[in-house]
Automatic annotation (TrEMBL):
<dbReference type="InterPro" id="IPR027417">
    <property type="entry name" value="P-loop_NTPase"/>
</dbReference>
<dbReference type="GO" id="GO:0003697">
    <property type="term" value="F:single-stranded DNA binding"/>
</dbReference>
<dbReference type="InterPro" id="IPR003395">
    <property type="entry name" value="RecF/RecN/SMC_N"/>
</dbReference>
<dbReference type="InterPro" id="IPR001238">
    <property type="entry name" value="DNA-binding_RecF"/>
</dbReference>
<dbReference type="GO" id="GO:0000731">
    <property type="term" value="P:DNA synthesis involved in DNA repair"/>
</dbReference>
<keyword id="KW-0227">DNA damage</keyword>
<keyword id="KW-0963">Cytoplasm</keyword>
<comment type="similarity">
    <text>Belongs to the RecF family.</text>
</comment>
<feature type="binding site">
    <location>
        <begin position="30"/>
        <end position="37"/>
    </location>
    <ligand>
        <name>ATP</name>
    </ligand>
</feature>
<dbReference type="InterPro" id="IPR018078">
    <property type="entry name" value="DNA-binding_RecF_CS"/>
</dbReference>
<keyword id="KW-0547">Nucleotide-binding</keyword>
<keyword id="KW-0067">ATP-binding</keyword>
<keyword id="KW-0234">DNA repair</keyword>
<dbReference type="GO" id="GO:0006302">
    <property type="term" value="P:double-strand break repair"/>
</dbReference>
<dbReference type="Pfam" id="PF02463">
    <property type="entry name" value="SMC_N"/>
</dbReference>
<dbReference type="InterPro" id="IPR042174">
    <property type="entry name" value="RecF_2"/>
</dbReference>
<dbReference type="GO" id="GO:0009432">
    <property type="term" value="P:SOS response"/>
</dbReference>
Length: 361
C-alpha cells in the first residue's frame, strides 16, 4: 500500500498542491516555515481524520479559506482506492472512498497505516501512559478488525459508569454495568497482552540494531492487579470511585513500559538514545504489521534524522529501505540530506517546498 498521488487544497499554507509520489522515498526540501511539516500533517490527516499537531481542526484550514480538501490515490498490489476528505470551518466533514459517501474515519485508517517519527513523538517514552496505549492500540487496530469495536464499546460503558457513580444509591444498582464492563475489559486486555507479547521480540531485536550498548526490555501492564477479576476490583473500589467521580483502575490505565538495563528509559537514556529508541519502536511495529498482515506502512519522518549521529542516521535509512516502505522525509537543504546518508535510488523523488508551493526537483 502506498500513496501514489496527493492533492491538497487550503491546508495550512498549502493552497494548491498536486503530487505524483514515489512508492519508495520522498524527500521534501525547504526552508523553515515553507510547508514541509504541513505536507506530512496533511497525509496524516488523510489517514486519521485529525492532525498530529493541533486538536483544533480549524487551525489547519488556510487562514483565508473556509474549508480544506485532501485527496489521495492509494495503491496496493492490484487494487486502487481514491480517498477524499473535506472539512469546513463550521465543522462539517465529508469523507469519500472510491466516490462513496457514508464512510467512517476508521475505514480511512485501515487503508492507510502510518507511523510518524517527529521530535514531539518522544512523548511515547517520556509522556504519560496514554501515548503508549495509543501505540499498542494502533497495532491492535490494524491486526484485529474487531478490536476497534470492543474498545469503543468499552469506552462508552466506562463513560456511562462514571456518570452513574454520582446517581446510584448503592453498589447493587451499579453491578449490572460492572459485569458488562468487566467482560469487555478482560477481552481488550487479553488482546493487548497477546499483541504486546508478540511485538516484544521484534522490539528487542530492533533495539539491538539501533542501541546494541543497551538491554531494552518491555512490559505490558493491564491497568489493574494481574490475575485479578476486574469485576471484583470494581466492586472493591466502588466507594473510592464514587468519591473521586470516576473509575480509577482498569484498561483505561494500561501501560506498555520500556526499561534500559533494568531502569526506566526516560530516567537513564540520553536525548539521542531516546530518539533512537522511539525510531526503533515505530519501525518494529510498522515492520511487524508488514510481515503479519502483508500490508504496507507509511513512515512520515519530520526534522528528526538530522539530530542523530551519521552512523545512526545511516542505520535508520538502511532499515527503512529494507522494509520496502513508502517514506516521507523532510530536510532544510539537499546538503543536509547528503550528510544524512539517505542513499538515493532511482525510484526516489525529491521535492522543493517554497512558501507552500511544492515542485519536483
Ligand atoms: N491555517 C494556516 N493557514 C495558512 N498558513 C498557516 C496556517 N497554519 C500555519 N501556517 C503557516 O504555514 C507555514 C508552514 O509551516 P510548516 O510547519 O509546514 O513549515 P516547515 O517547512 O515544516 O518548517 P520547519 O523547517 O521550521 O519545521 C508556516 O509559515 C506557518 O506559519
Amino acid at each position: 500500500m502506498s500513496l501514489s498521488r496527493l492533492i491538497i487544497n487550503n491546508f495550512r499554507n498549502l493552497t494548491a498542491v498536486d503530487l505524483e509520489l514515489s512508492h519508495g522515498f520522498n524527500f521534501l526540501i525547504g526552508e523553515n516555515g515553507s510547508g514541509k511539516t504541513s505536507l506530512l500533517e496533511a497525509i496524516f490527516y488523510l489517514g486519521h481524520g485529525r492532525s498530529f499537531k493541533s486538536h483544533i481542526s480549524n487551525r489547519v484550514i488556510n487562514y483565508e479559506r473556509d474549508h480544506f480538501v485532501l485527496f489521495g490515490r492509494v495503491e496496493e498490489a492490484k487494487h486502487e482506492w481514491s480517498v477524499g476528505l473535506q472539512k469546513t470551518r463550521q465543522g462539517d466533514t465529508t469523507l469519500k472512498i472510491n466516490g462513496e459517501d457514508g464512510k467512517k474515519i476508521s475505514d480511512l485508517a485501515h487503508l492507510l497505516p502510518m507511523q510518524v517519527i517527529t521530535p514531539e513523538g518522544l512523548t511515547l517514552l517520556n509522556g504519560g501512559p496514554t501515548y503508549r496505549r495509543a501505540f499498542l492500540d494502533w497495532g491492535l487496530f490494524h491486526q484485529h478488525n474487531e478490536f476497534y469495536n470492543h474498545w469503543a464499546n468499552l469506552k462508552r460503558l466506562l463513560k456511562q459508569r462514571n456518570a452513574a457513580l454520582a446517581q446510584v444509591r448503592n453498589y447493587a444498582e451499579l453491578r449490572p454495568w460492572d459485569i458488562e464492563l468487566a467482560k469487555l475489559a478482560h477481552l481488550v486486555s487479553d488482546m493487548r497482552a497477546v499483541y504486546a507479547e508478540a511485538l516484544r521480540p521484534e522490539i528487542e531485536k530492533t533495539c539491538q540494531f539501533f542501541l546494541p550498548e543497551l538491554e531494552i526490555t518491555v512490559s505490558f501492564h493491564q491497568g489493574w492487579e494481574k490475575e485479578s477479576e476486574y469485576s471484583e476490583i470494581l466492586m472493591q473500589g466502588f466507594e473510592r470511585d464514587r468519591t473521586v467521580g470516576y473509575t480509577m483502575v482498569g484498561p483505561q490505565k494500561a501501560d506498555f513500559r520500556f526499561r534500559a538495563n533494568g531502569l526506566p528509559v526516560e530516567d537513564v537514556l540520553s536525548r539521542g538514545q531516546l530518539k533512537l529508541l522511539m525510531c526503533a519502536l515505530r519501525l518494529a511495529q510498522g515492520e511487524y504489521l508488514i510481515t503479519q498482515k502483508s500490508r504496507q506502512c507509511l513512515f512520515l519522518i519530520d526534522d528528526f534524522a538530522s539530530e542523530l549521529d551519521p552512523t545512526k542516521r545511516a542505520l535508520l535509512a538502511e532499515r527503512l529501505r529494507q522494509s520496502g516502505s513508502q517514506v516521507f522525509v523532510t530536510a532544510i537543504t539537499q546538503d543536509q540530506l547528503n550528510q544524512m546518508h539517505w542513499q538515493g535510488q532511482q525510484s526516489d523523488k525529491r521535492f522543493s517546498v517554497t512558501q507552500g508551493k511544492i515542485v519536483l526537483l
